[in-house]
Amino acid sequence: MHNLLEQFFKKHLELIFLRFDFGLVLQIIESILIPGMREEAFEIKSTALLTIDALNEFIFNNLKKPSKKQPQLAQNVQAFYTQHQKIFEEFLRTLAYTLLFEDHKNVWIFQKSSIQQL
Predict the structure, then answer these.
(1) For residue 38, what is the DSSP state?
(2) How far apart, in Å, are the Cα atoms of 11 and each of 37, 55, 66, 99, 103?
(3) Which segments of the chain have a pLDDT < 70?
(4) Rounded to 10 degrees, what is the CA torsion of 112, 22, 71, 118?
(5) Where would you tag: which of 22, 25, 109, 116 has the fewest CB atoms within 10 A of its CB?
(6) Of 69, 70, 35, nearest to 52 (Cα)?
């Protein structure tokens, strides 16, 4: 399930922000991705982090350089980021807690997600 979600987020973020309700996106983030970051299983944790990284990168790129071809996409991304900044704070808090207080053999999976959050 996590791999399917990762691929969907990586390939269809424009569709998500143009057509989906923000409540659904928040539900996916809060019920699947954030708990996935805390999982013990490496596959689940790495997939959740890669999915969050794709989401963060998409939002950052669209905030930095809004799409001129799709102004509605730019407005929706801006609205999502403005209305739901607590989600991004939760990403950062969870990453920091996990890196500082949990034992990890594969710390490299956190590197890209951590850099994007900062």
Answers:
(1) T
(2) 21, 10, 18, 28, 32
(3) 1-2, 101-118
(4) -20
(5) 22
(6) 35
For residue 33, how far is the Cα from the chain centroid? 8
Chain segment 9-39, per-residue pLDDT in tens: 778 888 888 888 888 889 988 898 888 888 8
Give residue for tokens 């569709």: 15
Number of domains within the chain: 1
What pLDDT sits at residue 78?
Answer: 93
The label of the residue with tokens 């991705």 reads 33
Helices (H), the chain: 2-19, 22-28, 34-37, 42-64, 71-83, 85-101, 108-117
Q: Cα–Cα distance between 13 and 15 in angstroms, integer?
A: 5
Ramachandran sector of residue 63 (left: φ over 0; alpha: ψ -120 to 50; beta: rest): alpha
Domain containing 51 equals 2-117
